[in-house]
């Protein structure tokens, strides 16, 4: 019998993380390992309790998850892939519950933030309760028969936990997506790689960052993201997380060698095949 690949996610079955994992591995059978926190996800990979982790790194509305950049570095995890998941938020309740019955809304804080405009316009000053996971909120409502509570989540959660979708597509931005990283303890060597995530620090003087960025431009390397992250214990100093894409691998290698001479430290977090991001006109 073929051994299933163990994949750690933050949250439980039915969550967006699980949806991303299932879509990324597609026809490959996997075993989902549920974790309460992102730190636990990384610990599971580091201790070899799982093969792979799927972890959100940014959302089109809520922005970057800065904590997760730190976790990748703390546990020395490697990015071996990515997937962009179109996020549709729905208002979920027990069958028969009406909007007028709802006194509380539960969900992950990022999900609540993504639907703030709908919540304010529909319910006003309703009580909001942060949960560690969207699917966990759905499971809690079903388990405890909470007739005055709604949650925000995906349709998969409604199907799994027997809830009713009271209203679909309540996210503020209909082109809402979340980028998930596929993480491993070891790098993936592939000639098909055309994207990399790197982290570097530069000297504390004028022009130091611009010099590095110009190297990428000179070598026709496209920067798709740059994120500054404060360095703990070093006031006013930052590490820069940069995502870059290329068409010519020689250009990439040349740029990296030149960047090495212009930074105080450089870590290649992963080289991988860039994920496809569909634009939804809705």
Please provide a written account of the structure:
- The protein is an alpha/beta fold.
- It folds into three domains: 5-86 and 177-184, Periplasmic binding protein-like II (D-Maltodextrin-Binding Protein, domain 2, 3-Layer(aba) Sandwich), CATH 3.40.190; 90-167, D-Maltodextrin-Binding Protein, domain 2; 195-272, Alpha-Beta Plaits (2-Layer Sandwich), CATH 3.30.70.260.
- The protein has nine helices and 15 strands.
- The protein has helices at 16-25, 38-46, 66-74, 109-114, 116-123, 134-144, 155-161, 208-218, 249-260; strands spanning 5-10, 30-35, 52-59, 63-64, 78-86, 90-93, 104-107, 127-130, 149-153, 164-167, 177-184, 195-201, 222-230, 238-245, 265-272.
Low-confidence stretches: none
**How far is the first residue's CA from the last residue's CA?**
44 Å
Question: What string gives the helices and strands in order?
Answer: EHEHEEHEEEHHEHEHEEEHEEHE
Based on CA atoms alone, the radius of gyration comes out at: 21 Å
CATH architecture of the largest domain: 3-Layer(aba) Sandwich
Q: Give the full name of the CATH homologous superfamily of the largest domain.
A: Periplasmic binding protein-like II
Summarize the amount of helix as a percent range: 25-40%
User: Which class best fits the helix and strand makeup?
Assistant: alpha/beta
Q: Write down the domain tally.
A: 3
CATH topology-level fold name of the largest domain: D-Maltodextrin-Binding Protein, domain 2
Query: Tally the helices: what do you get?
Result: 9
Major β-sheet, in short?
Answer: 6 strands, mixed
In terms of DSSP E residues, the strand content is: 25-35%
Mean pLDDT: 93
Q: Regarding CATH, which class of the largest domain?
A: Alpha Beta
Number of DSSP-assigned strands? 15
Q: Which term fits the overall shape?
A: globular
């Amino acid at each position: 019998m073929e051994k299933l690949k163990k994949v750690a996610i933050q949250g439980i079955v039915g969550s967006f993380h699980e949806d991303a994992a299932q879509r990324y591995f597609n026809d490959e059978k996997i075993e989902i390992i549920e974790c309460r926190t992102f730190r636990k996800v990384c610990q599971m990979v580091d201790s070899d309790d799982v093969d792979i982790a799927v972890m959100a790194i940014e959302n089109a509305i809520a922005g970057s998850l800065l904590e997760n950049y730190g976790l990748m570095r703390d546990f020395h995890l490697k990015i071996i892939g990515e997937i962009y998941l179109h996020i549709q938020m729905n208002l979920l309740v027990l069958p028969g519950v009406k909007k007028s019955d709802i006194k509380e809304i539960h969900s992950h804080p990022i999900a609540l933030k993504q639907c703030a405009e709908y919540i304010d316009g529909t319910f006003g000053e309703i009580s909001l309760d942060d949960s560690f996971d969207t699917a966990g909120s759905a499971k809690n409502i079903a388990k405890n028969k909470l007739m005055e509570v709604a949650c925000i989540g995906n349709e998969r959660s409604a199907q799994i936990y027997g809830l009713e979708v009271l209203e679909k597509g309540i996210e503020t931005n209909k082109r809402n997506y979340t980028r998930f990283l596929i993480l491993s303890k070891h790098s993936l060597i592939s000639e098909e790689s055309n994207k990399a995530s790197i982290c570097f620090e530069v000297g504390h003087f004028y022009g130091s960052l611009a010099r590095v960025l110009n190297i990428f431009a000179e070598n026709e390397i496209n920067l798709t993201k740059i994120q500054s992250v404060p360095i703990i214990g070093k006031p006013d100093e930052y590490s820069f997380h940069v995502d870059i894409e290329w068409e010519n691998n020689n250009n990439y290698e040349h740029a990296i060698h030149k960047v090495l001479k212009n930074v105080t430290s450089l870590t290649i977090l992963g080289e991988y095949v860039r994920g496809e991001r569909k634009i939804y006109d809705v």
